[in-house]
Write a structure and sequence with these properties.
Blueprint (H helix, E strand, L loop, with lengths): L6 H9 L2 E4 L4 E6 L3 H6 L14 E7 L5 E9 L4 E5 L4 H10 L7 E4 L4 E7 L3 H8 L5 H6 L5 E6 L2 E8 L6 E7 L3 H10 L3 E2 L2 H10 L15 H4 L2 H4 L10 H10 L6 E8 L11 E4 L2 E12 L4 E9 L8 E4 L2 E6 L5
Parallel strand pairs: 1-11
Antiparallel strand pairs: 1-7, 2-5, 2-6, 3-4, 4-5, 7-10, 8-9, 9-10, 12-15, 12-17, 13-14, 13-16, 14-15, 16-17
């Protein structure tokens, strides 16, 4: 049975502000004067170009161009904070440690140290300004995507980062985990709605944001998931897996066998299960990775990998013997 979306929390996220506990993500601290140049050779984006207060989205690939993880890198000025899916954090931490030789780089698992709380919606900056001190609303509004700034919450140091991956634009607040309950209580006292898992998932799917180990995994090439424009620098120097990416982009003109697309179902159709097959022309052409009942469209929607011959928006397909249509992302 598909969990019900909270209409009140969804409406708050879309029109005012809502918060969601993202502390179950993994967090890695990278320090030392060589941290940027070290990560530059491993990750797909231009990490060395980041100045204090800036950040980027990136992927970590195998030599075959397949994903180990997608991650967010924040240059704080005295260290870098990397966030990623919790279930690959240990793997990534071990691989990063493996490649440190003479570089001045130190790695730390900060997952248990920090709480990570997302505050999203059109009024996220104004609500956040009421919550934190030592940072102006103008500074929050001026933050570029993945930008970060420091502030305080009741005398406790916090890091604030601009995010898009929650489905609705907003901010992540990083604070010592022991103060989590106090932040939640303060947000509730301000009448900021709390997003449950089902509602947060609906926002993510409507925005077409792929999630690792849901819509991407260790067999995925970033171009299949459509994250290359955000996660891959086309101008930086070498990184692990670059040769495969360049070969596909230049020799293959970016064509891959399958692509992640959006699917819109009939209004009275049931929400398809993850792994449900996508059909067209009497054969299976793809598979569902994420799906929900869209509060905005009032019908089931899904993310799915389909064969490259069926990726154009408007293409008719079927899911569970019901009609569906390939839809340009984001849905909303």
């Amino acid at each position: 049975m598909v969990p019900a979306v909270s209409s009140a929390a969804y409406d708050a996220a879309r029109h005012r502000a809502a918060f969601v506990d993202r502390s179950n993500r993994g967090r890695i601290a990278v320090s030392g004067k060589d941290r940027a140049s070290y990560l530059q050779g491993l990750l797909t984006n231009d990490v060395v170009a980041l100045k204090a207060g800036e950040g980027c989205y990136a992927a970590y690939l195998t030599a075959q161009g397949r994903m180990i993880a997608d991650l967010w890198v924040y240059e704080l000025g005295d260290a870098m904070l990397v966030t990623l899916s919790a279930d690959v954090k240990d793997v990534v931490l071990a691989k990063l440690d493996q490649f440190i030789f003479s570089e001045d780089v130190q790695l730390g698992d900060a997952t248990a140290t920090f709480a990570q709380i997302g505050i999203v919606g059109p009024r996220a900056s104004s609500e956040l300004k009421q919550l934190v001190s030592d940072v102006s609303r103008e500074a929050l509004d001026a933050l570029a995507v993945h930008g970060n700034v420091r502030g305080t919450f009741r005398g406790q140091a916090v890091i604030i980062a601009r995010i898009l991956d929650a489905g609705e634009p907003g901010f992540d607040l990083f604070i010592d985990r022991q103060h989590t309950a106090n932040v939640f209580a303060a947000l509730r006292a301000m009448d900021v709605a709390e997003l449950d898992e089902a509602t947060a998932e609906a926002l993510r799917i409507e925005a077409g944001v792929p999630m690792f180990h849901r819509d991407m995994d260790e067999e995925t090439i970033p171009l299949e998931a459509g994250i290359e424009s955000q996660a891959i620098s086309m101008t930086k120097g070498c990184y692990v897996g670059q040769e495969v990416i360049i070969r596909v982009l230049h020799r293959g003109h970016g064509r891959v066998v399958r692509k992640l697309v959006g699917l819109t179902m009939e209004r009275d159709a049931s929400v398809p299960a993850r792994g449900a097959l996508v059909g067209a022309g009497g054969r299976d052409v793809g598979q569902i990775t994420s799906a929900c009942l869209s509060p905005a469209l009032q019908r089931p929607i899904a993310l799915a990998y389909v064969h490259r011959d069926f990726v154009e928006p408007g293409t008719a397909v079927s899911v569970d013997d019901r009609q569906a249509e390939v839809t340009k992302l984001p849905f909303v």
